[in-house]
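SAMPLE LOG
Freezer: B-3
Tube label: C17
Construct: single chain, 118 aa
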Amino acid sequence: MGGDNNKSSPERLEKLGDRLKKAQVSVDARNRPRQRQSNALGFAFRITTELVAAVAVGVAIGWGLDKWLDSKPWFLIVFFFLGVAAGVMNVYRITQSTGGDGPVPKSKLPSVIEDDDD
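STRUCTURE (predicted):
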């Protein structure tokens, strides 16, 4: 009885290993769209956070300077726009570093022949 199980044991283990590999491939294939979606959501959340944080810091600095120097809306307005500019620059920097090839070099742009027939 025990001898028969030992002879077929390596074959059974090999078959089990094959079945496990197939199951893992199947699970990976099912989880792949979820991983892409979670990566995209994480990226969108990061971009949103960068933009909102920069604006919030700009508004806080402007409000604090207005309160301290008693110059009510001026610093708030100036630092609001500086915060927006900083947020947009951060978003641009993040998108350029994570995806795409960045700006196209001039050597790869098609040449344009000037037409002075006007």
